[in-house]
Amino acid sequence: MKIKAVAFDIGHTLVRYNSPLNWKSLYEPALRQVSKRCAFSLSDEDIQMAASILTKYNTRENPREKEITSQVIFTEILDALKLPHSILDAAREAFYGFFQSDAECYEDVADTLQYLRSAGVGIGALTDVAYGMDNSFSLQDIASIRHYFDVVLTSVDVGYRKPNSAGFISLLKAFDVSPEQMIYVGDEQKDIVGANAAGSVSVLIDRDDNSPDWGQNHTIQDLQEICKLI
Predict the structure, then answer these.
(1) Of 26, 105, 124, 205, which residue is most buried, by most CB within 10 angstroms?
(2) Separation CA 159–CA 114 (nearest Å)
(3) Bridge partners, residue 154, by sequence
(4) Strand, helix or coil for residue 140
């Protein structure tokens, strides 16, 4: 059946990050940046307390299916540190900004999206966000290519994280296509499992040639190989 839509994961599929997937080792400098931006001091004990809350919501350490908003997470941190809620927005911006400063699209992304657009294929994204990151922060990473997309969904929008099929089903509804008419491209097992559960065509982007077998329908090493599957 003809492919009518292609959807992508964002992190390490479309966008490269130099930060580790697990942010735990960088909590302290990120929190120091928050304290500097918001003009309050943090003791070592404060850092440890805030880090313990972040670890609780760290999906690399403690996987969860239901998503939690950044307001919940950062309100808990501010309450633990006895800081006013008035700095909530500034604190989130400083924390997320620490990790987003090195984000950049892979070299094969723009040409691939341009091809899909010219071929009349719907283009979407479904991505899990870190620590309930709001769209105003998380979608900054694809600002330079956002105009190519018809639909962009995050785990905050959907309320669930991959491999839960809710986000994939939402994409299918948004595109008004049957599952076998949509390709989903991602770099992690949860991407493949979720796409398969929804009945979509699952494609693993294996940029480092690690050759995992997670049941994907196709494996590619360069995003432009998607064009051959349309």
Answers:
(1) 205
(2) 30
(3) 127
(4) helix
pLDDT digits (tens, 9 = 90+) for 154-182: 999 999 999 999 999 999 999 999 999 99
Whether residue 103 has pLDDT greater than 90: no
Indicate the residue type of 178: S
CA–CA dist 26, 197 (Å, integer): 34
Domain housing 41? 23-100
Measured CA to CA, the distance from residue 216 to residue 64 in angstroms comes to: 23
Last residue of a domain, one of 68, 100, 132: 100
- The structure's pTM equals 0.94
The CATH number of whichever domain residue 156 belongs to comes to 3.40.50.1000
In whole angstroms, what is the distance from residue 123 CA to residue 183 CA?
10
Beta carbons within 8 Å of 33's beta carbon, 6+ residues apart: 94, 95, 97, 98
Last residue of a domain, which of 70, 100, 130? 100
> What are the phi and psi torsion angles at 99 (to 5°)?
-90, -20
